[in-house]
Specification:
By secondary structure, the protein is mainly α. The chain has one domain. Helix content is 84%, strand content 0%. It contains 4 helices and no strands. α1 runs antiparallel to α4 and α3 runs antiparallel to α4. The longest helix has 30 residues. The radius of gyration is 16 Å and the shape is globular. Keywords: Membrane, Transmembrane, Transmembrane helix. This is Major facilitator superfamily (MFS) profile domain-containing protein.
């Protein structure tokens, strides 16, 4: 089935957020296999959200396909790099478990509010 990009972004963010919360909340009882399953779920959620983002960019900038691809190519790795730097600073303040929990809550809420306030 084909879904609108906004729905993909919303569901992908929620899925990735839930698995991030699980990773942070259950860190003390996790083994290799459970971490593998949680990271697989997190990656699937990220894949859904990222494909929705790319689709939304190409849809909104359909008269400018080269610019759409350039924006997607530039800002996606930039967001990953800035997230890693920010996370590195926050780990010393919050620790790993709380960082994953807060990050997951942030992802989940962005999926909810992003869908609610999306322009249709």
């Amino acid at each position: 089935a084909r879904f609108k990009s906004e729905i993909n972004i919303s569901w992908g963010s929620k899925i990735a957020g839930i698995f991030s919360i699980l990773l942070g909340g259950l860190y003390s009882i996790l083994n290799f296999y459970s971490v593998f399953i949680i990271m697989l779920g997190n990656s699937i959620g990220g894949l859904i959200a990222d494909s929705g983002r790319s689709g939304l960019l190409s849809q909104k900038l359909k008269n400018y396909p080269e610019e759409s691809a350039a924006v997607d190519t530039v800002f996606s790795p930039l967001a990953t790099a800035l997230g890693a730097v920010t996370g590195g600073f926050l780990i010393s303040l919050l620790g790993y478990p709380l960082l994953f929990i807060f990050g997951g809550i942030s992802l989940f809420l962005s999926g909810i509010f992003g869908k609610k306030f999306a322009k249709t």
